[in-house]
Specification:
Elements (H helix, E strand, L loop, with lengths): L3 H18 L6 H16 L27 E3 L6 E5 L9 E4 L11 E3 L8 E5 L16 E3 L10 H4 L7 E3 L7 E2 L13 E3 L5 E2 L13 E3 L22 E3 L6 E3 L12 E3 L4 E3 L14 E7 L3 E3 L12 E6 L4 E3 L13 E3 L20 E3 L6 E3 L3 H5 L5 E3 L4 E4 L14 E3 L13 H4 L5 E3 L7 H10 L1
Parallel strand pairs: 2-4, 3-5, 4-6, 6-7, 7-9, 8-10, 9-11, 11-12, 12-14, 13-15, 14-16, 16-18, 17-19, 18-20, 20-21, 21-23, 22-24, 23-25, 25-26
Antiparallel strand pairs: 1-2
């Protein structure tokens, strides 16, 4: 008979092996539930694609269901912790039966996002009703994006009090933002309601005190008036307000969001200048002010000390904007992406001279003239993409670079006034160029275009 220490040692070894190698399969109750779920999905799927519906989910008892498509198990307990439904084509938009998820008591991530031909348009549970998701006490991530859900699902969602991440991107919602309907989700850290047709007032947003990522892009929130309401959300790290037709000047109070890493205000109708308070956004890595209505003299000085800034995008739908290109400040940032098309630039802003780590540069649709700025290539050995189309450049000379640009792939110098001959060292300096858009005025362009196309 084994002694108590020997039994304990054996149990410890078994647990260790389980952690290292995983259990052979998920538990029987969950295997049965998975097969019931597949049967349900087959019942609402098109017959001609039935064989493509979760084909790895089989009734073979030797099959390890922890390795089935779309699943991940806890290596210690063998319980399913992640579930993703994959791509299935339904006969028509269908309801999802939440009661089929009840056996998965350790589920942490449920992904019902969709890119198939038909979508889920609602939830139901004939056992628990609106309280259904409360059964999944460990659920943290719920992704329902790219479906056809309406606001009718919110009574179900409000019961999922454990979730920290909720994505409802690109659904058929409309109406006011459903913040009151989510009042019980006090643990939310990420909320994505982008592209769902929302409008109406949003003062209650400040009550979601733990929010770090908020996606409200491509709705109809411009009717809300000033966006100062977002300034109260001090924990925000990422804020996406692009495509909402917001009007007026950028508020100074945005500079108080000192934890922001991403701020996307593109595709709105903002006017005026960049607030001086943006100099306080010391954590900022991504800033897009593209496709707005900026006019007059536009200063870039607030960016000077943003040491973490990696992506900066700016453009204006108005040709009355005048970007300050002569600033004497020396930037403390090293950008990877600098996109300033449609900025009425007559000179490349001085901060570009200090950039050594650029991957993508877009200076298209400006008023730049003279020589093609090949110094950008010399200063940035990691450069991959340079767009200079629709300017007034006249000369293209490729000075010998210290290093070849092995990562450089795309060059667009079309719609300029460049003539003459292509630099004979172009292929040597840019050995991996795969796309070049130029002009028939340039001798040799047709030949290199053909070579690149064949390549």
């Amino acid at each position: 008979m084994l002694s108590t220490p020997q039994v304990c040692h054996m149990i410890w070894v078994m647990l260790l092996l389980g952690q290292l190698h995983g259990y052979k399969s998920c538990i029987q109750k969950e295997r049965k539930a998975l097969l019931e779920l597949k049967t349900y999905l087959l019942s609402i799927s098109e017959e001609e694609v039935a064989d493509d519906v979760l084909p790895t989910w089989t009734n073979d008892t030797k099959s390890n269901c922890c390795r089935w498509e779309g699943l991940k198990c806890n290596q210690t307990s063998g319980r399913i912790i992640e579930f993703s439904i994959g791509e299935t084509h339904f006969k028509e938009s269908s309801l999802f039966n939440l009661s089929l998820m009840h056996p998965f008591e350790e589920l942490r991530s449920l992904n019902l996002s969709w890119d198939g031909s038909y979508l889920f348009n609602g939830l139901f549970d004939d056992v628990e009703g609106y309280e259904s998701l409360r059964r999944l006490r460990k659920l943290e991530i719920l992704d329902l994006s790219y479906n056809a859900f309406s606001n009718s699902i919110f009574p179900f969602l409000n019961a999922a009090t454990s979730i920290t991440t909720l994505s409802l991107r690109s659904n058929y919602m409309g109406g006011p933002l459903p913040i009151k309907e989510l009042k019980n989700l006090t643990n939310l850290e990420l909320l994505d309601l982008s592209g769902s047709g929302y409008n109406g007032s949003i003062p209650e947003l400040k009550n979601l005190k733990n929010l770090e990522v908020l996606g409200l892009a491509w709705n109809h929130l411009g009717d809300l008036g000033p966006i100062e309401v977002f300034c109260e959300m001090k924990n925000l790290r990422e804020l996406y307000l692009d495509g909402n037709i917001f009007l007026g000047q950028l508020p100074l109070c945005l500079g108080s969001l000192k934890n922001l890493r991403v701020l996307d205000l593109s595709s709105n109708q903002f006017t005026g200048n960049m607030p001086s308070s943006f100099s306080s956004l010391e954590s900022l890595e991504y800033l897009s002010l593209a496709d707005n209505d900026f006019t007059g003299f536009f200063l870039l000085d607030p960016l000077a000390n943003l040491t973490k800034l990696k992506v900066f995008k700016l453009s204006s739908t108005s040709d009355m904007v005048q970007i300050d290109t002569e600033g004497t400040w020396q930037p403390k940032f090293q950008l990877r992406v600098a996109a300033l098309p449609f900025c009425s630039l007559e000179k490349i802003p001085n901060f570009f001279v200090y950039q050594k780590n650029l991957r993508l540069v877009d200076l298209s649709n400006n008023r730049l003239s003279g020589d093609i700025p090949t110094w950008l290539l010399g200063n940035n050995p990691e450069l991959e993409f340079l767009d200079l189309k629709n300017n007034s450049f006249t000369i293209f000379q490729m000075h010998t670079l210290v290093h070849k640009l092995h990562k450089f792939q795309v060059l667009d110098i079309s719609a300029n006034d460049i003539g003459g001959v292509l630099p004979d060292n172009l292929g040597h300096m840019l050995p991996n160029l795969v796309h070049m858009n130029g002009s028939d005025k340039i001798m040799g362009f047709k030949e290199i275009f053909h070579l690149l196309w064949v390549r």
